[in-house]
């Protein structure tokens, strides 16, 4: 196994059995660059590949920072809808993009059967889109679309912060995802709300990014014969 990885034993909160999960050592988390939708690229190893833990015994899967905090009320539905159909297999050790996609889609399925909040669904869908981006697969757009609509729903219905996501960063993500999937009118609208917001100015880096992408979205809209107000 790659020397930037290590295994850790945890107890699955759904079936109460011990499993081994694989984590990335701190020295393996060196950021190389970021895309404008906040997708992170790392030096040497793709940390995203290991962000979902999967129980080999029952099929419960979740982002690692949420794995042990499942609500007790959700356990029976996981056992009924997932565990009863589960074919035992391990997800520990090194992962390629295909194995990572399988783990993330299991996490998404777990959220769906639990009827989880839109913000939780959006976070996983966005990361699935990033994995498809790593493959240069057109399915990226499908999951960017799911993420955009789910973040939009969360913005309308949930209280901030959404886990660690503040209101203005959420607005930025919605705007940039709409730009990437070609919904340019919606993108321009969301970006304009950020750059005109006094509250967003407490985050100068976010404002600068929003202004850059706002101009790009307006340019793209104009190139498509759209009309943009000055």
TrEMBL record:
This is DUF2225 domain-containing protein. InterPro entries: DUF2225 (IPR018708), TPR-like_helical_dom_sf (IPR011990). It comes from the Bacteria. Pfam families: DUF2225.
């Amino acid at each position: 196994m790659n020397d930037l990885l290590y295994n850790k034993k945890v107890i699955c909160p759904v079936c109460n059995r011990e499993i081994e999960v694989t984590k990335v050592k701190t020295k393996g988390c060196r950021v190389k660059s970021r895309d404008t939708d906040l997708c992170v690229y790392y030096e040497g190893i793709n940390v995203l590949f290991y962000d979902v833990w999967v129980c080999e015994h029952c099929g419960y899967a979740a982002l690692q920072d949420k794995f042990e905090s499942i609500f007790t009320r959700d356990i029976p539905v996981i056992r009924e809808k997932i565990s009863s159909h589960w074919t035992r297999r391990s997800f520990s050790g090194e992962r390629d993009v295909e194995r990572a996609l399988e783990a993330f889609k299991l996490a998404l399925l777990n959220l769906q059967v639990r009827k989880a909040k839109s913000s939780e669904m959006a976070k996983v869908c966005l990361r699935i889109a990033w994995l498809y981006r790593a493959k240069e697969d057109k399915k990226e757009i499908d999951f960017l679309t799911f993420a955009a609509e789910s973040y939009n729903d969360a913005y309308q219905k949930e209280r901030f912060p959404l886990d660690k996501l503040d209101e203005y960063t959420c607005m930025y993500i919605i705007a940039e995802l709409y730009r990437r999937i070609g919904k340019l009118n919606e993108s321009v609208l969301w970006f304009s709300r950020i750059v005109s917001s006094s509250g967003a100015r407490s985050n100068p880096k976010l404002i600068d990014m929003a202004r850059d992408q706002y101009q790009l979205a307006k340019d793209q809209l104009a190139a498509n014969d759209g009309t943009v107000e000055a």
